[in-house]
Amino acid sequence: MNARDFLQSRQTFRMGTAALGLIASLGMLACGGGGFQQHNANLPNNTTASPANAPTIQVTAPVNNSNVDPTVQFVASSSSPNGISKMSISVDNQSVFTSASNAVNTLLNLSSGAHSVVVSAVDTKGNSATNPLHVNVWGGNAPPQPPAPPAPPSGHAVFSDLQKANWTQYSLLPPKYEICTTCSPNGPQLVLSYKQGVASPSLSGGSMQTYIAGSEPYSDGFWNTRLVGDFSPNPDSGHTLTPSIHHFIYDLYFYIQDPSVSQAIEFDINQFVNGKSHIWGHECRLGGGGYQWDIWNNPSQKWSPTGIPCKPVANSWNHVIIEVERTSDDNLHFVSITLNGTKTMVDRYDTSTSTNWYGVTLNYQQDGDYAQHGYSVWLDKVNLEYW
Question: pTM for the complete prediction?
Fold first, then answer.
């Protein structure tokens, strides 16, 4: 692996929109950052209106009236001219956490259903303040399911049910968004995990749940699976399969409870063949990006807006179909994006870049927002058609 194989770049005005981390020996590409735009006074949740001598409290996670996972990240801070002696959290009138400081950043396990939460602060003079909020913990009832996806076109090969495949997860941290080789999945900067075979919500009976949280805003979780080439189920040692493939359809369902707490979610198809790297990156920019699709500009290593809306439905399964092509002269054609039955032609061409790796991989990535709100996404019926 040389220096070129570990690239990173960010668009200046977006402070981290596109990070490129290509590790050729692993055959993967991370396009990070998720449409990061500078935020200022637009702070989440309630800030308490208190008497002049009382503390003030800022709760940044969870979002008031939001749907959350059973493991909930609480992030809050308080201030007072007298100094803060302690902060505490109560759930349904039961004290569950106390800290002798002016800040809270902790994970708490809550039971399914609706909960009333109160974040409290007491200063050194005994003045107190509270900040109430409500959360609903995801339960076990499966949501309504859409019709089964159509079968792949006749004659097309397919890698199917990739939510069950062997995925590897990585941490991407600002500002450079290099793949972090020393990060723990337990944070504190980025908390991330994934779980396969999840029964609910699920369409197939076993979805893949990915989760990010943490204390470092705009941190990203990145998952990669190798389908053809070294370290994959299809080594293709004779180098005959990958050169024969010119068309891909990335077909999947995803479930997200509250799209507004995500900076972006990303779906990438990667093909490395004939010394050329082809990265068909597709990013659904959400809370920080105007709800539209961006695509990856390979030679410039940055995201390019398409103007195509990306507005997934909350608390529901969303169906994405992405079609791309490797042209006869080894360049890229972004063909179309379909979200929940609405197909839009992209029809953009891009030039490839050089590589020493060989094979086909898929990426999935989810990006943290300005408060690094904790959130999950469930993936199911993940297929890659090719011909």
Answer: 0.72
